[in-house]
């Protein structure tokens, strides 16, 4: 029997997974894994935690769960895969079905034939084309080399100030790592918020938390120049002229698909620059598959091809590519629901599906969203805050998006929502979900179910909500609705917004209706700490004839703007 | 307008929720909440954590999230609900539509008319009808009074030894509480495992953990007598004659619906003793609703009525009953997927849907289950073990059950699975789920997705598994399959089963095939720490002609039996 020749280009998540899957499906295939750098199977999502000193053994980034470093010997012995490291694939000769390779260190060139080729060339960091971008001290955070550099900076202990350019996932993770390493950190983001997968109001809660940790967060600011002295970075000048002193700068301005090899070989490339693949992860050449950060996959929300450079998806795509490379077109990869999460100091920020902003951009019909704030478990079990926005759309009111930020257990919330979206569940199903409850894990009515309850109440017209950002916009326009803070005087004393609100504790509302505007059409906005009491005020006020009553969703806990106290 | 009279009997989870929901839907209804004990809205699931000293302020069990004790004043002011505490409803006069009440302290009797009655009378603890059950020191753990008693025992500091009778949810929570309070604890369970909602092999992992914490766990043992001296408990005698010294005993032998009031009034009662309600939570009398631990609800798995006394369901049922009491039959409660979770020291144990044992009892057709063991997140982020059994059934291979135990993040896993069951998801959907991944939260391929991968591989015939319990049964019968432990010598040295296994590291397997049985039909069982390497051995051995090769699911981490080292 002829042994099938499989060549995999790229030995990180997708490539290593594809090669291993192919091996398990064909013990006798000749499988070659070609990797430009020295390392294989790097846990690249772990880089920031190594840089920050969450753990200190570099080998852990390269180990199997059993603690064996996944080097060429490991691949040879455990997987019977020939891994060629420090070897670059410089061209694909599709007609001849071979890849031309070059040893990085020696420049030696050679070719490898393939029956099936799998491209897992990953992503490349976007550079910032401003003066000084090549100064020593300016780096990206994408590769093991970047990681080694930043870890050395940490261990050196001499760098005191760092700037992170970009407030996306990698930017905030880099920020936390450098802060943990003892540096003063500033994050400069050109857009008007960090973590643009979130709606701005929720992102602002994250920014507030970063500032509370001592990070300088500059949104809506562009870097004009990296300033150097004798070739070394000494600062960053913003477009507005401000200068931030720093000795290291991490450019985290996004990544792009590393698809040059595929493009040069004439494979179809999509609008995002990613390699075009079908659901079988097959490229426009049927002998070539591709997977991971170099491809475009389908958005399961919009159906459009998207660039989704996530480590979990890379693994799942690699698994599909590896199987189809051996078995033919047998399994498909369905795409992404845009699920993601990141840690930002004591906060987590996650999403699955659409933010309100993303839904608006898509022109999603009949879309409704509400904010919910509340603890993840009972206060007596050390409950921590979660602030979420749940979004449903269409006549069936299907769940289409769920964002969640806060110090609470965001991972569980977003995982729950992700499965609900996958199950195409409607609000009426979510409100009665049977989730695992005990006080160490959740509230009796879990935050996610409570979010669905608020949505149901909104859809039934029982809850009329207004978001903090809409309230803020009203205030900026000079509008002065009648605000009721429904908390106790003690709570008010500890903290309050100071937006002209009247303090009327929920328990006193029925006896203090005389203090409300005489005009039953006056705009009244109620809130409390998390707006549960605020919500309870609505039916009381409506029953007494007030026709224009709303609750500020999420209450003070979801308010990202300055407050008086 | 005539004001609607709503009477709610029972002021804990379901009752308080029903009354509050009714109020929000009708500001002018006359709502009365009648409660036999002094407290209202008790967070009864939190009792064990107060007893154990996880928190020390009793008020926290009775507080709103804002820290206000939910007493009669709170209900009057915030909810405009008249709460009658220390008041027992002794009879329902259905024809006259009134409840007859008695003040617990004074014996004073009076009646209350209702238009709609909502029964939320909860559950009662099963007693153990053995000699000595009325000794001082023998208690249950169901009520606030039980809780106050056990907390006083803890604070007294004189009790050194405790026995918990029953190893169910309340039993293990009581065990942990008493252990935390500094006592030596023994758990006596009549059945052959604790936590009978789990399959026995997973329950044994929990038992092992309890023993590792110093708890004496006696399964398959019955209590014959509580031994006393001068009216005080001094020990427990088991049916086998063994005596366990103790000064306090918590009888956690299960609960039963507290449906006497309903039964006496002639309402339909189901086989479990619970009040029969339809999906609207309406009893056999259309003027009477019921919710919480006193009713039977529908199993969403079997369709049969079941008794499911869980705090989260009680709240959801109460919400439905409260709405229908005001609005008529408008919303339905769909029932339960038997989801549950509990903390057992550093372990958690949870389930949604069916265990293998429960599926067998139901006679579920075409059912497949596999065990998966692995960390919840990367080792470098402090990953902790999870051991799960995933179960699918029917020609569509829908997820029908997921159990998970271990020190890892069981709550997220079970919540994920619960939504997948609700979404009626098939294995082919689960393998590509888009869950929130970053190293602080999960593996790149989340444990739940990995479980689905193992199931997929099993269904495709690529993985042939055998559970630890099946292996153990073989060994007990004297069978001696050829076992291969695929780990490294160092790992073997640290820990091994000692069941006659050969140590052949995965990386050496291809070169050591000569050490295997010559007979290609010989039974070979591979494993490693979590049986990932064990699984990788299968295709290698098959490719070399071995026809009877299986992997022991979950490896050593899922092995609950004694091991040599």
Structure, described:
- 2 copies of one chain form a homodimer.
- Chain A has 4 domains: 5-123 and 256-327, FAD/NAD(P)-binding domain (3-Layer(bba) Sandwich); 138-253, FAD/NAD(P)-binding domain (3-Layer(bba) Sandwich), CATH 3.50.50.60; 346-367 and 382-428 and 436-455, 2-Layer Sandwich (Enolase-like, domain 1), CATH 3.30.390.30; 465-558, Rhodanese-like domain (Oxidized Rhodanese, domain 1).
- Chain A starts with a strand and ends in a 13-residue tail after the last strand.
- In chain A, strands 3-2-1-7-19 form a 5-stranded parallel β-sheet. Chain A has a 5-stranded parallel β-sheet with strand order 9-16-10-11-12, with helices on one face.
- The model of chain A has no long low-confidence stretch (mean pLDDT 97).
- Chain A contains 16 helices and 31 strands.
- Chain A is of the alpha/beta class and 565 residues long.
- In chain A, 57% of the residues are buried.
- In chain A, α1 (13-25) runs parallel beside α8.
- Helix content of chain A is 27%, strand content 25%.
- In chain A, β30, α16 and β31 form a beta-alpha-beta unit.
- Chains A and B meet through α1, α3, α8, β22 and β23 of A and α1, α3, α8, β22 and β23 of B.
